[in-house]
């Protein structure tokens, strides 16, 4: 399905690279960091003292005072979590942190929505779900900023509400409207001057705990004893931050680096250690890829197909043996998720192929794919896969457990998905029952019979907003890899860094000669290539079509170990 991308080499300003070299970085790392906008070594300092101070977050003092009052009074606190990895880790961080800071275990509870039954966020239904726990304070994590009705319902029942979130607020007639909570902490709310707008929900929860500790210290709560340390929660913060694919700005990179450091040193929660075991990964060599593609999906699978309580309990568990049981259950659920996803993706690709045939092999500027057999818990993943392959804004729709048509969309650069839905709602007032999201990811619920009208409406907006250049997939590379850098030491050096969203892992590009190629594992292309006169091993996962003898290849470096021997190979991303 995929078409060859345009390969573009990142610009690495020589002066910035030179400055980083003078600070002690290797020439290769200095060039890579400079190409990602780093201008000084200070931006790469992962020390805890370099984290932005909590005081910059609007509303955090009120949140800290609200929580301190509750903790000291012994009030019952109920967390309202979310059903993804960010929400699960945020819930675990908040519960563990509140316990460390003096909240009695019997006062701490949580509820988490069922994706198919309750939908997203602090809805009135979730408030009712929490009532049997007799909470006096509801605290949202990774949700709540747009929960106008849910917060109002909780307040009407006499509950105090603290909202901690990182999503965009609700728009009512194009005007931002915030919930009437007792306190609200969100770097994306109007008037918040916090330098990093990219905190994940778990990052916001961690910052609220830092502020709570300061407030309790001011009240003398730690007199005569050492104040609790919160850095032991950073493995969870790192996991949620990477899994939620937020931008890894300097502050987020520090949070992730600190969490990875704890994992590599064996100082992590039993549940995190168990997830490494269940995923077959070595925590001693933990990197961001492990969090985003091994641990995160196993937590997410619980919210997609089962009950996120399993994921949260794994992260809260103190017994290693029980934690491993839960991690293995999550692994089983994730295997089921992959099977469902594979079937849905195959059906989606078949629909796209038929559509291309109808349009004489041209792909429309936006895609809407629906099948009655699709599972609503996996539509977002499938939309992401199709978007990557076709390089088009893509919505995948399924019929939910409640019978409604629910869609999840993923977008490409230059097409703000939530704004597109907003425009569609204005042009076709009866088409969207509800919608929300961001520039690159959004969701919606359609009126019955709305699939084709929605497809036509989204295609029309995409045709207006996207030109031919925007519809051409571009892959940014770091240019050639120096020949003397093709070794295990380079791979280890690169793997030790924090890469991720908006701070992408190195992708090199070289002219190569294809010496041999064969299919392995039925779905992958194994290559032997000549690069600069030297023979190298390469593999292109998920690709089986033959490639030309002379090619320009974009690739990453990986290190395989077999029978005690280390072998460097190229992992192909594209060949043009």
What does this structure look like?
Helices cover 40% and strands 20% of the residues. It is globular and about 75 Å long. The two termini are 15 Å apart. The chain has 17 helices and 19 strands. The model has no long low-confidence stretch (mean pLDDT 94). The chain has 576 residues and is α/β, with parallel strands linked by helices. Helix 4 (85-100) packs antiparallel against helix 8 and helix 10 crosses helix 13. It has helices at residues 14-22, 27-35, 60-73, 85-100, 124-130, 148-156, 201-218, 234-243, 250-264, 270-279, 288-305, 309-316, 320-358, 379-390, 417-427, 451-465, 488-495, and strands spanning 6-9, 77-80, 108-111, 137-141, 160-164, 170-172, 175-177, 183-185, 367-370, 394-399, 405-410, 432-437, 441-446, 474-477, 508-520, 524-531, 534-540, 550-562, 565-575. Strands 3-2-4-5-8 form a 5-stranded parallel sheet, with helices on both faces. A hairpin with a 2-residue loop joins strand 18 (550-562) and strand 19 (565-575). Belongs to the RecJ family. It holds the Pfam family DHHA1. GO terms for molecular function: exonuclease activity. Residues 76-241 form the DDH domain. This is Single-stranded-DNA-specific exonuclease RecJ.
